[in-house]
Records
---
Amino acid sequence: MAINADFAGREYPATAPYSVGREKLREFAAAVGSTHPAHHDLVAARGVGYPDLVAPPTFAVVVAQRAEAQLVEDPEAGIDFSRVVHADERFTHHRPIVAGDELVTVLHVDSIVERAGLAMVTTRCEIFAEAADDAGERTPVATVTSTLAVRGEGA
Amino acid sequence: MSAEHATGATAARPVLAELSVGDVVGTRTVEVDRARLVRYAGASGDFNPIHWNDTFAEQVGLPGVIAHGMFTMGAAVALVEDWAGDPGAVVDYQTRFTRPVAVPNPGVATVEITGTIGAIDADAGTVRVDLTVTFEGARVLGKTQAVVRL
């Protein structure tokens, strides 16, 4: 099945909240080899100025991929995961993610570009703190941009 | 947590004015085995079978199980976190995935990481650390850049 380029430009409703837990941060940090004590030890995290354990720089992928599943797992989008390779990834942190955060994500399909038997699908996850600030706005936490390269049939 | 770890959190942070483009901030060797990939799969929620199932990986044209690109990206930036002395100082981090890291069974794939100051923005109070990440002598990540607020 071919990629459905009509999905380009699509914006999804905000996801259900993702609750950032201390043990999940410790588990993720240990898995990537992030041994900085601010990921593991509450006293150390507070010593660096955080209210709770702080997430490693790539932890936001855990939050983002749940939102990206709305696109990737949608049969209408035509993304055959056995033909996908990850092309690039970028994290922009507007503020650090800490344990106790309740995060909601808005998925944007920024572009779908087909060339030479490859479809490049670029998504952008805007991650916000669920709780509104004094002005009633959600606080931006992170932007995660990801490009998947999908090989076409026979490529 | 040990006193040794607690000391790390209060270690001196780099001073922007003392840095120069080209300075090496650190090097690290990461040994990746199959157990490491299973652990990352569970921790991240990325259960794509190309990272744990040889049969599936070969069916889709890979030489066998390969590491998650996101694992390699995450492992590389730990060097920058430790150098910065504050994980939250990494305000932007990007990479391209240029070559797969094939992980043998049994055995390990050895990934070499070097961080170098690529740019300094004194007005913004940030430095860009460029990471070179190689496996079997070839780069596996491209344009791997971490912007650190100091």
Note: The longest helix of chain B spans residues 69-84.
---
Amino acid sequence: MPTIYIDNKAFEVKAGKNLLEACLSLGLDLPYFCWHPAMGSVGACRQCAVKVFKDEEDTRGRIVMSCMESVKDGLRLSVNDKTATTFRSQVIEWLMTNHPHDCPVCDEGGCCHLQDVTVMTGHNYRRYEYKKRTYTNQYLGPLVNHEMNRCIQCYRCVRYYRDYAGGKDLNVFSAHNHVYFGREKDGVLQSPFSGNLVEVCPTGVFTDKTLKEHYTRKWDLTNAPAVCQHCSLGCNVIAGERYGQLRNIVNRYNSEVNGYFLCDKGRFGYEFVNSENRVTQPLIRKRQSEAVNRATLMQHMSTLLSGHTLIGIGSPRASLESNYALMDLVGKENFYQGIPDDLVYIEQKIVDILLSGAIHTPSLKEIEQADAVLILGEDIWNTAPVMALAVRQSVMKTAATHTTEQVAIPLWHDMAVRELVQDAKGFLANMTVTASPLDEISASTMRAAPDDLARLGFAIAHILNPSLPEVPDATDAVRTQAMNISRALQQAKHPVIITGTSCWNNALVRAAFDIAAALDLTEKRAGLAFVMQDCNSLGLAMMRSSSFEKAITSAERSSNVTAIILENDLYRSVPAGQADAFFSSCKNVVVLDTLHNRTTERADVLIPAATFAEADGTFVNNEARAQCSSQVFMPANSEVRESFKWLSEIRSLKTTAGNGHEKHPDEILQALESKFPQFKGISRSAPPHDFRFHGARIPRESHRYSGRTAMQANIDVSEPKPLQDDDSPLSYTMEGYRGPAPSPLIPFFWAPGWNSGQSVNKFQLETGGSLKGGEPGVRLAEQTGVTPVFSRDIPDAFTARQDKWLLLPQYHLFGSGELSVYTEGIASQSPAPYISLSRHDAERAGLKEGDIVTVKSDGKAYSLPLSIHGSLPDGIMLVPAGLRGMDSWSWGGWVNISTVKV
Amino acid sequence: MISHLRTMWLVFVHLFHRKVTIQYPEQRVPLPPRWRGRIVLTKDPDGGERCVGCYLCAAACPVDCIALQATENEEGRRYPEFFRINFSRCIFCGYCEEACPTYAIQLIPDFEMAEYKRQDLVYEKEDLLIDSQGKYPGYNFYNVAGLDAGVKEKGKGGNEEEPVDIKSLIP
């Protein structure tokens, strides 16, 4: 490790870094704007100037930009040198000449990097007294607000949006001191990662429009570390509450998972928590007054429990604690997953692969660092957006890494590396059913039916490991493509294969496994990543319960069934016909859920459950990483409780042993762990509920939290006692331990002088590195070196049938989420329901774009407009999945078109 | 003995001094204009609320007795949806007035706010808002803040240039 001297003090620093990174990693405060740990240096803002000296005798030194200077052994620099500090204060004074005086009405105020840096450099009095430049703003859509006056021209936004995220519609316009960051004309930002501009922009040019609706300063929020609920990646987020409402979501850095960025669905899709559609009161239907209190509910529940056959339907979006509490209540044999048989089968396959230890499943960070990626069937742009962002980084950075290995240019030297790399890219093969925005950076693409994609996968596996069977009747095109891909995978050091469940095809999973396992035999560390459907799909699948079809059979067998459905809208999870069949064979239906939906309409007893923001819970993401999501706020309505608390209380009615009230989530996890060895270690995913620092808890509120004695004074002038949270080491006060918290318990990022999210560098071991104390979460599946068992069962080639189509779901980033569409800005970008056919199929059937087509699925007829899909293979019908109000169809089945109305 | 006599003498002499006590409430107290008494919310010269809901007063308040919620009208002008001061907690330190960037919150020379019920000391925005500009007549934050919130267009405020024509390359 090189030694550098900062203000004549020796420090050991990591080689290959720049001076700014070195200084920040050492905990020194050095101001900067344009540098970003995920985007490297360009030396544009001139804010991070330091003085570098030739040797010990040199007293004069020279000013350099610390972000553009490599660490060298024996290098001497000064951060506090008079000239350097003067230089920095002059730069900020220039940058501030045109910055408006609108901090009081700026949403960034209080978490603004520009404010922090201005204070840090000591520029506290404005000498410039001439006119300020102004700009007109643009409408950038319902999620991001634009106020161009505040811009300091650091170029971070376009570097992020264009270079990092691959967006095209944000750019820099005009010249000299008039440069303008925006779109060519007003319009919605097209990139699904545009929300990160809010955090990337060091000042308030781009701000969160959903937060504006109920604006709260960062210091007034009650924050807790949570886990995003909208896909299976389990991105870490910080959720903030004020006045009993969830106010915003910001990124919680986790170097292994989401790093610095979230997708827009995760960032803005939180408003379901505040929805008017929430279930707020226990209901017992078919009686005079349906709304009941807790005592009546419990009394009613005890009659429902005795003498009835219990059936529990779990949920892939409920926490492990809640699912386990339900299983504990109804018994393991009566607990079902609440998803169709086909999906259970595929997910079971995935669980078997992960738990076998035969293969390594990479984290998102490892995907970012992969040098060849093969996507087999999964539309990750829509089903796992942050993974698509990681894949993009792998493609863009592989070439850069190769180049910098040959030329002595450090990887952080962004512009220089870009000049060298030009258009060279790493290897990405995007094999999907339809076109994806990832195609433009793919070296190889293929549009085919899932079975054909799986056959391509098996063909690749055969080339990599000739002992595997050859794909029968493979076409030459498939052979050549398989040859090209296998060559690229063989050349790579860290290839990653990505597949998932969105094609509802198990052959894809097996093919992907065969490829990864075959690569592993050749002494590479290949990764196999799976994309699941919901935030806890893998956790539920790991409990290895039966499918919903089995629940129907079991309900039909006995006459006296009480079904308890946990946070699962069955009409979205299974075809409507099956859900109806199930409900009609149950005598009593008890539903625990957060929002009213079609399943809660069928409930005889409806119990209000807490959302992720109001509950503690553990979720297992797609890489089998168990992560704890903490309660952000206690609902003011005491009838809204965590599902596992309701279920434990109901269980105590049954057993009469123990009251079940005081069961902490970590105790439930311990019980889960002892019952299912596959969850070993899960109780370590967060510190236990009685964890304390010298007797002190970790406060959810900042030390500047305001309004404590006035917030509820309109109700009662005497302040209530602070809320007590016995389930986690976090407290609902401003008091407590303010030092470094264990990483799963960091409620928000703040450090003295660093009010913005940039303060995360104080929590990292090194800038852009892992959090101090390790990343949160426990991986439940690790590679153990077991010899893989290859699958040799190759599906037949897909053939389009006469007047019948293979029904596949099309997931939409904005629209397919059950919960995220409660955010108006997301709902407004959701497509209207449609049926999609290939151009050839439509022509053959004599159909035109927009024709109303009636399709029968599971005994129900659906009439939807036709949308002709240019890139769709023949013989496949695509229907958007999970749009609001739409049924779940029998994905993977065959349907025909019954009537057509022009 | 001497001490007692001296005390009696002093008391007697005070009979002829000018009286310090005033006959309040018949006689009013002369209060200087900068007296830190009851807190009010003032209005802009155009009659709009001056408070922009920036939360700085609430953050500055050492007893945390100010709670508010900012909201926006269609034109983007910020104002408090509710603004509550719990005067039973207020210590009249004036930090909120110091922190206020828009001169909205002001402490005025009025201390007559005693109540029999503590709950009545909780003032809402309707109780706090006065129809006056208070100590700083003529000031409107939006004239100097740059952004367009319906008060003035971009470039029309004091010390502002006309909006940049981004299609032009002329310096």
Note: Chain A has 26 helices and 36 strands.
